[in-house]
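Suppose you are handed a protein chain with no further information: no name, no annotation, nothing but its sequence. What can you learn? This example shows the usual starting point.
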Amino acid sequence: MPTTHPASTNTPASDARYSDPTRTTPTTQGIIEALEDRKMEAEQRGWLGELEGIDISLNAAREKLARMARQVSLGVPSFPSGPKD
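A reasonable first move is to predict its three-dimensional structure. Written in C-alpha cells, the prediction is:
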C-alpha cells in the first residue's frame, strides 16, 4: 500500500525562509565567493569561455544581493474598523 504524506505548508507564502530576505544573504554571499574563486582559476588556466559564463552568473548574484539589501518591509496595512456615523 502506498504511503501518503500530508500536504506541506512550507510554501513560499507560509515559510519564513522565503519571506525574510536576510536569511538567504549568507547563501548568496557564499555563491558569490565561490564564483570569484572559479573566476580566478579560469583566468589562471586561460578558460575564456568559462570566464564569460562565470561573469554572467557573478553579476546576477551580485544584483540579487543588492536587490535584497534595498528591499523594504511595508508592514501590515491597517483598515478602518467600520462605518463612521
